[in-house]
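Is iron/sulfur cluster placement plausible here? Inputs below.
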Amino acid sequence: MAIDIKGVLSPLSAIGTLFEHPRTLTYPEVTKDILVGYRGFHINNLETCIGCASCEEVCMNDAIDMIHPDKEYNPKNTSGCIPRIDYGRCCWCSLCTDVCPPSSLKLDNICIHADCDPDNFLYMPKNIKNIGEDVS
Ligand code: SF4
Ligand code: SF4
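Reply from A.M.:
I modeled the complex. Tokens:
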């Protein structure tokens, strides 16, 4: 019976990787630079959101529910509701931000979220006037 020398020796080539730089990051101590324009979590300027639910209507994945917040942010929000995103459903198509009349709803480039509880993927967009400015 012929011995497959190449098949026997090829796994040993993995030993060479012991002397290479690691290809993984020690997250969260080290993070990767996020590309400009990357589609991450939603942010919403609640002072200008008018509660029109256009974002909810356009979402083809039913990823948006309109809910009542604890306090009033915008007197011109006639429904009194603001959107909440289900990241178990969202595909980051950004249609909801495209149709938002006052352009209050946007996508930030923050995109890392890990949790074992599915309820924690129901996410209230941070109240942010501009990307990088948290007004909650
Ligand atoms: S980005 Fe797309 S899928 Fe996600 S909530 Fe907005 S419309 Fe829905
Ligand atoms: S985020 Fe925009 S589209 Fe959605 S309810 Fe508020 S104003 Fe309307």
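Short version: The mean pLDDT is 88.
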